[in-house]
Amino acid sequence: MRAASIFALIWIVIPTFAEAQSASAKPEYFNQKVADSNPLRNEQARELDDYIKLMAADRSRFQKLFQPDYSSPAAFAKSAEPLRAAFCASIGYPPPGKQPDKPATYTKIGEDSIGVYYRAMFPILPGVHSEGIFIVPKSAKGKTPLIISMHGGGGSPEVALFNGGANYNDMVRGAVKRGFLVYAPQHLFRADEFPKDIRRQIDDRMRLIGTSITAVEIAKITYAIDELIQRPDVDANRIGMVGLSYGGYYAQVTPAVDPRIKVSVSSCYFGVQEGRYAKDELSVPSDFRFQDRITLFNDADIVALICPRAHQIQAGSRDNASHRETGKQLAPRAAAFYEKLNLKDRFEHVVFEGGHEFNDAAAWVFVEKHL
């Protein structure tokens, strides 16, 4: 009996001892190899990549925001106001800051057989001027139409004006020869005392204060117009704008914001960023990467903010394909706004024989017709 009891006790103790040994071998916390969840992170990246592509192709937000009324040109323009307000909000326009209560200044810098040239300065924001060359044609009498002539990324008003005008051709003096007043503003692309990427740096910092370089440079034009139309020789009802390359960008977004610009010519720009985006989204320069640039404000849709006012798009047949081919694909969508209003003659997409240059022949006929 005693032996049996001892045997039974052994069988009770042995499992308890074994369980104690097993318990002491278990880790204090649950662990797993980090690499085991690598597939989940890969799946997350694929999901977000697919989501971006899906939203970039989704037109429903644009269709909800912009519901065009084709019953009349005035009704169409009114129906575009929500889209214009959204565009301004996306770029931070108008820029923050009170406009200085200081007068514009005009300093004469030269004169020739066709006009008188001034260095113009317009205070637009605290400590910020719109600066450029203002030209009064000698043929002008009384109220005269005004042309804003916008240089491109590597240029300046001086490059576009002097010594033959380079690839701008007659983009500035051509207007003077036709009896138009001209304001050719200076935008920031390079500055000798600053780093080569000063434009990107300034744009990045502007976004942190609620605006962008696009918004400020539009303001450099629109606020200058505010001052220019106070002059007795400027016809406030006849304002046009022309621009090449980066200037072509501004000759599209500025009339999109400011309805006082009645006719515009955008040369060698249309569709470039859409083409870059299709190949590699991040190849689009940073100053074109404002909110909803591709989903709501691609180049074709921005034309809706210009219509029913006249707009010409130019592209050179010998320019880089990136400055022409995507624009050819987008142009019919832009033209449709005018066609549905029976205003086909107010929109032109011109592929001219030439390179990355301003085409005077097409531009000035169009401007004179609609201004």
From TrEMBL:
Keywords: Hydrolase, Signal. The keyword 4Fe-4S does not apply. It comes from the Bacteria. Pfam families: DLH (PF01738). Gene3D superfamilies: alpha/beta hydrolase (3.40.50.1820). InterPro entries: AB_hydrolase_fold, Dienelactn_hydro, FrsA_esterase. Residues 1-20 form the signal peptide. One of its GO terms (molecular function) is hydrolase activity. Residues 166-271 form the Dienelactone hydrolase domain. This is Alpha/beta hydrolase family protein.
